[in-house]
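Lesson 9: reading folded outputs for more than one chain in a single document. The general rule is that every protein is listed as its sequence immediately followed by its structure tokens, and records are never interleaved. Here is the first one.
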Amino acid sequence: MNSVNKYQSLIIGLSVVLGLLFGQLNEVKKIAEYFIVPFLMIMLFGLFLNIPIKDLMKSFSHHQFFSANILINFIWTPIFAYLLGYLFLQNQLSLWIGFVMLMVTPCTDWYLIFTGIAKGNVPLSASVLPLNLLLQIILLPVFLLLFFEKSGGIDSNTLFESIVLVLIVPIVLSQAIKMIFYRLNKSELIDKKLIPFFETSQVIFLGLAILAMFASQSVYLINNLTVVLILFIPLIIFFIVNFLLGRFVGYMLKFSCEDSASLNLTTLARNSPIALAIALTAFTNEPLIALALVIGPLIELPILAMVSQVLLQIRNQS
């Protein structure tokens, strides 16, 4: 983890505070919304540039791990997240949608760092990264429409337009640029210049997008900051239950300590940048959805840090 990404939680928190402060200035508030999508597209371009889509088939080589990852991330978790939302958030539809968006998008970056800290099987964790990315892009709109279309909270046309704009365009552009540069024998420019630059600056662009979002909706958001307390309980329950489920599945499948730790972290860590990019473009009139996705990682990252230490202790005692 580079020096900037070590402070991801701090940068996100600072972006929220600065956004709320700058949003009190009418001149800033009027133009802030026009910067959200460009910052997100730059961030996601850099993220996709570093994801080895060509290695997608490697995900299938460890059949048990692959199957467990798919079942927990894309069958169990969406249903569980929806039920948690029904129990705790049914009177807050926007928060419910934001919570589900966060829960159904497995992480594609920092979970590898926590896997390394826990001394898990990092190559195995990395092998399912392209698959998790592809499936969440395909399935996120499916889950949203399945769970919320009748609620009136989802506009399918806007949802798919936002996916094309902030996901499909960056991923196609990033892979096309990689292919062109590799064919021109300019791979060093990609590997040693562009990818390191975006690895360092990804959280900066995310922070700028969050700042712009909070600045554009500052008054509304200041009046709704109690959502932190509302979201805390379902988030904690999610992490506890999925941690225990991951341990149980790893035990039943007779995974090694390393593989079991990898399963835990690939099924716990969530991909807030992907979900936030969709929320900020598809739900421009529902800032509480985006707020839920900003609050999520502020709670998630300390929990993942604790989980990695617990897994490390379990490994040392085994």
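And here is the second record, again sequence then tokens.
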Amino acid sequence: MKFVVSLAVCLCAASAQPGPVPSAPAVSMPNLPDNAVVAEFEDGARFTMGDFRKIFAVLSPAQQQAALQDRRNFLQQWAFYRKLTKLAEEAKLNEQSPYREAIERTRMQILAEAKIADAINQVVVEPAEIVRAYESAKTKYAQVKVKAIYVAFSDAGEGAESGGGKKVLTDGQALAKARSILKAARAGEDFVKLVRENSDDETSRAKDGDFDTLRYTDNIPDAFRAAVFALKKGEITEPLKQPNGYYLLRAEEVSYRPLAEVRDEIYNEVKNAKAKVWLDQMNMDTTVKILNPAFLGR
């Protein structure tokens, strides 16, 4: 029997009880075969484990967990929506406006999304395409291991002291200090020694300046990205300003994420790009003839 009902409705205990629902541990899917009958509705129709799995697949993760947490309530609400849907069909509400149009719009949306998904699944990406994409955008997969010196400043004012009795620098003083350190480092002074003597970043200072391995695609300020990924091994950036201090970053290692590590990422990018070309072309090839310009407000 066919039912006109939204499978995205929240068939869960939360919809039946007011107030917040406390979180509960994840529950596993019942270990039953698809042909196992788990319920019977008042009109005699039977509901199998296979039916449940199909409905479960189109629910959101939160709805899925709720359905598993309270399976009795899921079945009760499914029976309830099923009954209301049947009554609506008997009253031919599905043939009346605005329900008919809403049903058709939802149908079109689901089928359009299904076709897009099918088109993406049909896209073939050859191994050679992945290699070409990797080589042509290799900068994207760059990674630089850096050491850092951080010189902090504050808006507290010149002459102020931090909690540890250390003099707080102004923005200008911190910049001047960072430039002085940079000059010394580029003149050959030991960078680790400069870290220990000057860096206000306690975490990296305790590791002789070891800061992080930055990837080109990391969520970092554009100024940092441009400066860091222009470095060669052993080179140091100009002072890079942050809201409360200046960083000096030295490249310890400059490398690229290996192709094997990013192959799946590139595969998906190439596949989606091809699908987008198909989708854009489909859109361009779709025409509509406007018969009444007044509709457009002209």
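What the second record shows: The CA atoms of residues 116 and 279 lie 8 Å apart.
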